[in-house]
Specification:
By secondary structure, this protein is mainly β. The protein has four helices and 38 strands. Helices cover 7% and strands 36% of the residues. The strands form nine sheets. Strands 8, 12, 14, 17, 18, 19, 21 and 24 form an eight-stranded mixed beta sheet that branches. Strands 13, 15, 16, 20, 22 and 23 form a six-stranded mixed beta sheet that branches. It binds copper (II) ion.
Length: 507
């Protein structure tokens, strides 16, 4: 280990903006620290303690004893390192893998069960900068503008209908011009492929037999919009039986029997979609990654095929003893929970969780940098600070918590994106309900794409438009979540490593 593996500095003094305070603190960790997180694990936080890491333990080793709860839904899960500051590089380069929970009696043969890991095609740029290499000038413009924004004048504030927010970057500056639609970055997105193969990979399957594709976005930072089409280019609905490990039907004994038809799935980093396909002899289906609106200071998403599936004549036995059928939408557990919330608003606490970014200039030993925050902004005097756990002597989890909730309660969170790019929400130890999926209905997930907001003209400062934040609503049911301290964060790991993570305690 190098002595300078872990660099922390104070950064800039606190700033005031609107009614609230913004702390800066800069941390740089070389990817020498690691640990493990079982993404989607619904057991106690202490069993897969992500606050422990190989740098934080005396022998530079961590021991985990993990029991998968009997109530863990049968489906597809993922494990990856979660050491703050170094997780992004490690995941981008492939340090991760799938874990699968089988139902009591598997419904499908192993040969019809396919794990489809979408990883970056290597080599991949790891600095995650959206600007070209000569983009230093645009950063300098952004920092100067940012530091001039201080404004301690109180404004009226509704956390659930948030005010427009300043943007981080100028529309034009330092030789870089941003996309005025707010959707596309100036640099192309690094492409994904199956297991690092040359895209698209090929999969031959026996014709007429139900196949399960476990689609996993194994990238560190790149949500993907996945579609399926036939040989004539016609869109084919994805028959989704599970999202993020959880059967869409809620049927834990026969999770593959009922599917939700979706035109596309928005698969965020570490998100999973379990999809059934049945091909005729000679039929081909192609899975592709499609363009979507990622944000002006994100990347330019491009169409590319990732997997071609061919149906081939086979003498093999039928592999499934069930015929998949569409789920009854009103019977889905996600629909029922949202109906309960609508019928009983007084029983549900609302909370605003806001994603923000700011640019900070060089001060002393601290280089210029972007800081990323995820903050409970329900109280108008909220305080933005990067992930900053505090430990009592001998403590295995932080003594400070950004959000405290009661076990047994239900909360509705407004995920508010006040930045120029997309984000991804993830919370540990539990799933939750996303009120609107790409199928237009509620679904149960553990990872959610948080779309970018919309540009508003700014007459005082035309080169710096304002952002009308986007709002994505989720319902969190804390009735079955083990008490303890854990985290929620942006699952674009560059953002997480640079501060966009917060602690939650269930008491
Ligand atoms: Cu983010």
């Amino acid at each position: 280990m190098h002595a300078d593996a872990h660099v922390a500095a104070d950064g800039n003094p606190p700033r005031r903006l609107l009614n609230h305070t913004i702390d800066d603190s800069y941390m740089s960790v070389k990817p020498v620290d690691t640990n493990i997180h079982l993404h989607g694990f619904e057991g106690p936080a202490a069993e897969e303690n992500i606050f422990l890491s190989t740098l934080s333990t005396p022998m530079h080793a961590c021991e985990y004893r993990i029991t998968i709860p009997a109530t863990q839904p049968p489906g597809t899960y993922f494990y990856h390192p979660h050491a703050h500051g170094s997780a992004g590089t490690e995941v981008a380069l492939g340090l991760s893998g799938a874990w699968i929970v089988e139902p009591d009696r598997p419904q499908i043969e192993r040969s019809a069960d396919h794990v489809v890991l979408l990883r970056y095609r290597l080599p991949v740029r790891l600095d995650n900068r959206f600007v070209p290499d000569d983009g230093g000038a645009v950063n300098a413009d952004a920092e100067k503008h940012e530091m001039a924004l201080n404004d301690a004048t109180p404004v009226s504030y509704d956390p659930f209908n948030p005010p427009s927010w300043p943007v981080t970057y100028p529309m034009s500056g330092g030789g870089v011009t941003l996309d005025p639609s707010g959707c596309n970055g100036v640099a192309p997105e690094p492409m994904v492929s199956v297991d690092g193969s040359l895209a698209p990979a090929a999969l031959d399957v026996p014709a007429g037999q139900v196949q399960l594709l476990r689609l996993i976005d194994a990238t560190s930072d790149s949500p993907k919009r996945l579609q399926l089409r036939d040989a004539a280019g016609r869109l084919q609905p994805l028959h989704v039986v599970g999202l993020d490990g959880i059967p869409v039907s809620g049927n834990m004994r026969a999770p593959l029997t009922q599917y939700l038809a979706m035109d596309y799935v928005m698969l965020a980093p570490m998100a999973r979609a379990d999809v059934l396909v049945t091909l005729g002899a000679g039929e081909t289906l192609t899975l592709s990654s499609e363009h979507y609106c990622e944000g002006a200071d994100a990347f330019f998403q491009m169409h590319h095929d990732v997997l071609r599936i061919h149906g081939v004549t086979s003498a093999a036995q039928e592999t499934a003893d069930f015929i998949p059928r569409p789920v009854v939408r009103s019977e889905m557990p996600a629909a029922k929970l949202v109906a309960f919330v609508r019928a009983n608003p007084s029983l549900v606490r609302r909370r605003a969780i806001t994603f923000t970014e700011y640019s900070f200039p060089k001060t002393g030993k601290t280089p210029e940098h972007q800081s990323y925050y995820i903050t409970d902004t329900t109280d108008r005097h909220f305080h933005e600070h990067p992930f900053r756990p505090v430990y009592a002597p001998g403590g295995m989890a932080p003594s400070n918590a950004d959000v405290v909730v009661r076990a047994g309660s239900i909360e509705e969170w407004y995920l508010i994106n006040a930045t120029m790019e997309s984000h991804v929400f993830h919370i540990h130890q539990m799933s939750y309900v996303q009120e609107a999926s790409s199928a237009g209905i509620p679904v149960t997930v553990d990872t959610t794409f948080v779309r970018v907001g919309t540009f508003l003209p700014n007459r005082r400062d035309p080169n710096y438009p304002l952002i009308e934040p986007s709002i994505t609503k989720i319902v969190l049911d804390f009735r079955h979540v083990p008490k303890g301290t854990f985290v929620f964060h942006c699952h674009m790991l560059f953002h997480e490593d640079n501060g966009m993570m917060a602690t939650i305690r269930v008491v």
